[in-house]
Structures
1.
Amino acid sequence: MNFDYVYKFHKVTDNSKNALLNRKIWLSTQESLNDPFEGITKTIYPSDREAFIIKCVNYMTEMLCDEESLEKSHAKNIVLQRYIENPEAFLEIVLEQAHKEHRSAIEHTRNLGIYSTSADIPNDERSHVANMIMWSLYADGFKGFCIKYNAKELYRSLRELNSEDKFSYAKVNYVTKPHEVDLFSLVHKGNIEHLKALQCKHEQWGHECECRILCTSTGLKEISQNSIEAIYFGDKISSQNEIDLIEIMQQSFPNTPVFRVKLDDQSYGIKVGKKM
């Protein structure tokens, strides 16, 4: 992973406490994330009929080459003959096949596990722990906690301790329009155009500086004891939740420092308190 540290902001719940106790993280489905435009794509294809026909012919040629291991020139001759025999039926069949591939790709992305973290803010010397918006939105208005991960160790341990799964990571790009996918781009297996949509969010989410860990399945995944660099409690955390989390950290991450994040009215910002 190309980051030194990534951060996860949490509410204090039974699930978040149990995951921490058992040294695990929860990877969510795409549909359970809070952005209603998550994974959205804009499908594009030629409006010009001649260009559309060429795309259809090339699409079916590539498909025949893949599925039947034909030479490209031979496959193209077969496809052209099918087009000549019944042009409209041919175009309709190709269009339906292309849409089918897109539906399959979309379904694949919906079944992936996603762990959303935040990287440090570019060109800002402060840690992402100082991000007031993240504390407010994801850590229950300073009543929750933030985990600071050693990014490389987190990623390494996920791959090593969950060998039945495959993992990847991606930095989210903040944009003003949806990711575009060519209708005829998915002829080859393994095309990742729809996966790229998971790297795009509207620029209004830019405060998150999000880095995502993707997995071939959802649910709880084991991490190493060295994955967590530090943990930070919001200044409004309840006494009982504070006690519970300290006990969990002492049991499962005994060498990890615990801090309290305070509101600093002098600087109109956040400051990190002493170790607890």
2.
Amino acid sequence: MAVEKTWNVVDLLKTTTDFFEEKGIDEARLSAELLLGHVLKMRRLDLYLNHEQPVSGKELEAFRECCRQRLQGRPVQYIAGEAFFYGNRFMVDERVLIPRPETELVLEHALERFGVALPGIEIPSILDIGTGSGCIAITMARMLPSAKVTAVDVSEGALQVAQENARALGVAEKIRFVQADMFDASFPDAVGGPFDLVISNPPYIPETEWAGLQEEVRRYEPKLALVAPGGFECYDAIVNHARRLLRTGGLLCFELHADAAEGVRSLVEPFFGSIEVMQDYARLDRALSCVKS
């Protein structure tokens, strides 16, 4: 009877990376690291600090199942059930978008401008529209301990994920979760206010771009959270709500489609001042913020 090879961490990582590369998996090494780290309950750094550690038969089978799912195109974050945003672990599944590093830059931009536009507010009031996994609202609640945060989403499933993340990260009592549709006339009454900051990473991918997205995005991530028919419908709705929901001097901040800055600027210019556009590390327009006159 053949005896199955005993694997250690470093050999398993190298073999899996090579296999993923051969099969055309994006970010093959990172995928292997994240999946093995998930199975072994280790950070990526710990995998290399413990590179000679043997992998048990049970762990190997769990890792192989993760790899099978990755080969089918399922994103690593959904396989592992987690993604990291601003250094914190967020539970994610197909009910919510996977948090992106670019959104961290949007959050930083909002916080920087908020501190300048509205200095000295003891209890800031923040509204996160389209909260998804809750990554923006929860991070805001953790970084601004005195803040009152309202997180709204049209999806009941997304709100369930966000609430679980808020509990896990110790801010459930600081955030009010609301299910509401931004295209419904009752939206302002549902969310309350007034607010000092309205922030949103809304659906902004035009329907015409959907077919060109990565297959794993189209197959697994919720289209509801990604696509607006023409790309600007959600921006337009939120601008109109923010005119009523924001205090005078309050800040509105959006994450942008890379080609949307001028279009969003035209929506806010009649009602808001001090418009700023922030670029990401790839020099793409990533966030737009403005102040209610």
